[in-house]
Structures are given as C-alpha cells and as structure tokens.
Amino acid sequence: MLTIIWLILSVGLISWFAYSILESDDKTIFMPGQLTDGHHQIGVACSSCHSDSFSDKEAIQEACTSCHGDERQKPFDSHPRGKFTDPRNADTLENINAQLCVTCHTEHQPEMTGMNGLTQPSDFCIHCHEDIGEERPSHKEMEFNTCNSSGCHNFHNNRSIYTDFLVKHRNEPDVLEKRILPEREFGNILGELADYPHDRFPVKQLVASDADAPQSSQLIGNDFKDWLETAHARSGVNCSACHTSDKGDGNKAVWVNKPAADTCNQCHNLEAERFKRGKHGMRLAVDLPPMTPGEARLPMKKDSFNHELGCTSCHASHRFDAQEAAVNSCLECHDDKHSVAYKDSPHFELWRKELKGIAPSGSGVSCASCHMPRINFDVNDWVSRIMVDHNQSATLSPNEKMIRPACLNCHGLGFSLDALADPALIENNFNGKPSVKVDSMRLADEEQKRADSRDR
Amino acid sequence: MSIKNKLLIGATLATSIAGVGTAIANDFDKPTISAKTMADALHLVMDSDRAIYTKKVVNRLVKKEKVIKASEHFEDDKALVLPAQMFRFGSELVTKRAKKLPDVDFSYSLQSLWPINKQNAPKTDIEKKGLQFIADNKGKNFYGTETLGGKKYFTAIYPDVGVAPVCVSCHNDHKDTPKTNFKIGDVMGGVVIRIPMDS
User: With contacts defined as CB-CB under 8 Å, which chain B residues touch A135?
Assistant: First the structure.
C-alpha cells in the first residue's frame, strides 16, 4: 500500500515539475532563493535575465545592461565597465571582477544581500584604493567599510558628492532663496521632435464642436469637459487619436471605447519607456501583466491591492491631471510611514499653497517633485527636453541620486546630504531638521583650503 | 586571432591613417610590419590628434581667446573636455568598438609618474620601468613584453610631452597634483600601447 502511495506521489511530483518546466509561465518553483527588492516584480520571467545559458556570465551581463545600461555610463557611473577593460587591470580583476554586475550584485542570495542589492563585503573598495591614505591624508584612519555607508561615496553614482561639486556648493544655505522646479518642455519643442506624429495630430486648438467621437461611443459629458481642458485639446489631439485603432499604417480606423495600454506611447514614448524602467512599470518591459500594489513589498493600502499600474492608473483618462497624479494617485496606494506623514510635512504645505493659487507654479513639493523629478532628458543625440522622469526608482538606491534632480532645486547641498542620511527625518517626511551630519562637506572644505594654501 | 592578423590590422590602420604606407608590401593581405611599427603608427595618430585638439581647440579658446574654460567636470562646468579626457574617452570607445571586430585587439592608456588621478600611476613592472625610462631619456621610446592575466603583450611606451601652456599650468595648479614645477617641453607622462602576442 505504501509503495502505491509513494508511486502516486512521485508521479504527481514529476508531472508537476514537468508541467512547470514545459507549460507553465510561472517557474518560481525552481528559484534557488528569493529575489532582491529590485527584481522580485519580474521573478516569474526567468528568461528576462537568464536569456541564454545560466552559466554564461556575459549573457547575464547583457541582460543587466539591457535595463540598466543607460545609467552605467559616465557621468552617471564613476566605475563604468570601460574603466576596467585595459589589460593592466588583470591582477585587480582577479580579486574583484568589476566588469560584471553579478560580481557585486548576485541575485537569489537574500541572506548575504545588503543595501542596494550589494552582495560583496562592504569594504570592497580596498581592492583598488588601498593606498588612499597616502593620497588623501584625511582618509588615513578611516575604515574601508565606511566608504559607502558614511554618505561620502557610492560605487556608481557620485554626481552629487564628488569633491569639486561639494566645494562648489559648500556655502549654500539650508533653503535657497529661489525655490522653484524647472518647467516641463514638450508642447513648445514638438516641432523639433522627429518621431512625434505631426501628420496625424497637427498642433492647433480644438473646441467642443471639433470632437470626433461617434454618437455610439457612449462617452459621458464629463469626459468631453475634461478633454477640452487638457493640453490634448489645446494641441490638436482629438478623441480619435486615442480611441481608434488607426496607427497611421493605412488600415481603416476602428473606434474602441477602451484604448489599449500602449496608446499613450504614440506621443509619450519617452515617458512610457522610463516608466517601464521603474518598479511601477518594469513588469510591462518583460511582457508580464501590469504590477499591482498587492504584489509590492512596501506597505500598501488594502483596497488598492488589485489596481493595475499603467498610465491611466495615475493619470485618470480624459483629464490626465498631472497635479492629481503627483500626490493623490500615489497616496491612493502607498501606506508606508514616509507616505502617510507627507500631509503633515512642510513640503505638503507648499504644495497646498500652489494648488490654492497663492504660491507660484513649481513652488509646491509633491511626491512627484522628488520621486519623479523634472530632468533635462536627451531625446536623442541632438535634442533634449525637460520632462518628468517616470522611472520613480531612478532617484533611489542610493538616495543621493535624488539630490541633483530634486533637492537642489530648493535646498543647499550640505543640508540635502544631511537630510537624506537621516532615516528618522525621511520617515517623518522631512518634518524638522536633520540630526545627522555627513562629514564629506567638511572634508571637501579642508581639502580645498589645503589646495588654496599650497597655491599661495 | 594570430599576431599576424593583428599586425595586418595595424598595417591597414597605419596606411589609411598615419601614412606609413611605405612599410606595407604591395600585397595587402600579407602582414609585413612588426608589432613595434604598428604601435609606432598608432601612437603617431593618437599623438597628432591630441596635439591638434590641445593646440587648436583648448589652448586657443582657453588661453588665447579666453572664451571658455576646460574642466574635468566639463558637463557641470559647461566647459571643454580636457585633452587627457578626450584621449581616454577615445581609448574607451576604441575598446568598445574593437570588441565587435574579431581581428582587432589593442589597448592604450595615458599614465604618469606624477598622476593627478592615482589610478593612472604605473601599475605593472613594465609600466614602472618604461615610464621611468622615458622620463630619464628625453625623446626616446620604451619597448618590451609582459604577461598580464596569463596573456602575453607587446608593450610600447611613448613620452607625453607638455606641448602647450595649458598642459603645464593645469597640471601644476591642480589640487591633486604631486608635481607643481612642470615646464613646457617636459615629459609629463607616457602613452602606453599594448598589443596581444598570443594566438
């Protein structure tokens, strides 16, 4: 009898494994260990990282750079791969192969994974910089495991903390006199964008009578009103632009009440691409169903668990209200302490004043001001435009990446560094002053004084 | 890839860019130049391009016409790329592009016994010996072979001379420089070119 039970169980188990390998989309049963916070969203899409062979490190490297490649170049990365390709580095690479992402970011190893997905011991800088004490006397007594943890250095992005930048910004006040976000550019540079569908949506103001939705479309009155008040109506983007399947390929346009998820990409391709690089949209980048708050590792509100994240989950269709998307859409789902504390913060007070019209546009600080900052983005090799970076993960891990695109619009560098190094202040959403003092500004100041006295 | 093929690439490069066609036989498919000649030709191109950029762009606009700065933080400072950075960016692009060309394999870097960035100090024995040699023997190059990471290389080291006032003043004035008394005409560092010799 036992043999028969054993046999049935074995056959069942084998069938289950066989089904998982051959048929099922979900192969997480074979996952050797939990994925990091940065990749768990795409855990079921094994092939997005393991495209070719599991042992081919170059193939894995290509998978890494297919998503992270843009940021792994100067000036965004102080240690791009190209820095290590010279054969003179052969000895060092034997100690730590800095040419491969997986050397420091090994996945499926939760028990040895630290901040920012690091799986190397925290003193890894010693492999190349063991003589730093000779070069910088101020660093003589410092331990190598403090390079990254002190708020002074990052392996990759040091754009806001390199010495000359610190020196340049060393005398700034906590709060700058001029505090305003840069204005977004899109409408005013449409003429320069070669891939904008100018032929289909010539820029002109549309009025209610121009709306080309058919009688049968069942659109409600508010939709028309909302559309009329948007940049869409002001820029010649009619109902049919989103509600027909016409892609300009000559096929007959067919009206659709619910446009496809990629409809916005026709004109907002860059925003969509950046959205797919962040935790909100990365599942779409590997052809998985959209992310839902229920699958997040951060605390989320229970009634939002099943919301599918896409353009219209934050920008309600027809109105596409950027102000709504900048705060209320975030707080509809996010339920962590930092998010919950926002409405008691000085930042929110500024935002409230802007919404009320008693403070200038761009002076309020929304969730998006910091987490989706307005950056001057290269559209191509020749054109750039200031746009909202819809990759809301780009300014975190480490959070110093937020300083240049967000904090420095209103705050001095020293204050920003201290504030972002203070976990309690982050948790209460910057309601108060930093209680942490990052040493880098003092060190840079000393370094500069040393150089000045030498010049004298 | 064999050394012959590498030399062939060098020969082609040399004829097309540097004008050392006299070293090439009529039959372009046969390698006829040495690793040393290939390195010399490559260096001639690098050095000439760099001299032109330094003199006709950086020195002219910074020193003579005083219309723009040159800065290592050229993006933040809205300034010109430093000649040494231009050289290094070129080297990185060559490495990247050469990866797609199976018969092309060489690398080059700019180093110094007095580097502003300490990562550009000589590291291997040949680099240390060679940089010292070109500093002590003005006008002479240094050639040798070395094994790195289990691979044998022909390594050539050429003196890098401060040709323009901007070279000298920038290095002397930089807060991280270990040497502050360079003069025009001094050997300030060396260009290291490596060509793998293994098949």
Answer: 118, 176
Q: Cis before residue A398, ω within 30 degrees of 0?
A: yes
Tell whether A447 is within 8 A of chain B (Cβ). Answer: yes
ipTM for the whole predicted complex goes beyond 0.95: no
Q: d(Cα A339, Cα A367) in Å, to the nearest integer? A: 8
Task: Give alpha helix (H) positions in chain B.
Answer: 3-13, 35-52, 83-98, 125-136, 165-173
Do A117 and A231 belong to one domain? no
Q: State CA A389 to chain mean position distance.
A: 7
Contact flag B107-A450 (C-beta cutoff 8 Å): no
What is the pTM (predicted TM-score) of this model? 0.86
Is residue A162 included in any domain, yes or no? no
Same domain, A340 and A193: yes
Digit-coded pLDDT (tens) for A111-120:
999 999 999 9
| C-beta atoms of B148 and A455 within 8 A | no
Note whether A301 and A349 are same-domain residues.
Answer: yes
Q: Do A191 and A149 belong to one domain?
A: no
A134 and A196 together in one domain:
no
User: Considering its fold, how many domains does chain A have in total?
Assistant: 2
Rounded to a whole number, what is the distance in Å from the CA of A83 to chain B's nearest CA?
Answer: 8
B136 Cα to chain A: minimum distance (Å): 23
Distance, in Å, from the CA atom of A213 to the CA atom of A347, rounded to the nearest integer, reads: 41
Q: What is the mean pLDDT of chain B?
A: 87
Verify that A144 and A209 share a domain, yes or no.
no
Q: Residue B53 carries which DSSP code?
A: I
Tell me, yes or no, whether A381 and A267 share the same domain: yes
B183 in contact with A, Cβ within 8 Å: no
Rounded to whole angstroms, the Cα distance separating A68 from A388 reads 19
Domain boundaries, chain B: 3-196
Range of the domain at A253: 187-410
In terms of CA atoms, which chain A residue is nearest residue B154? A87
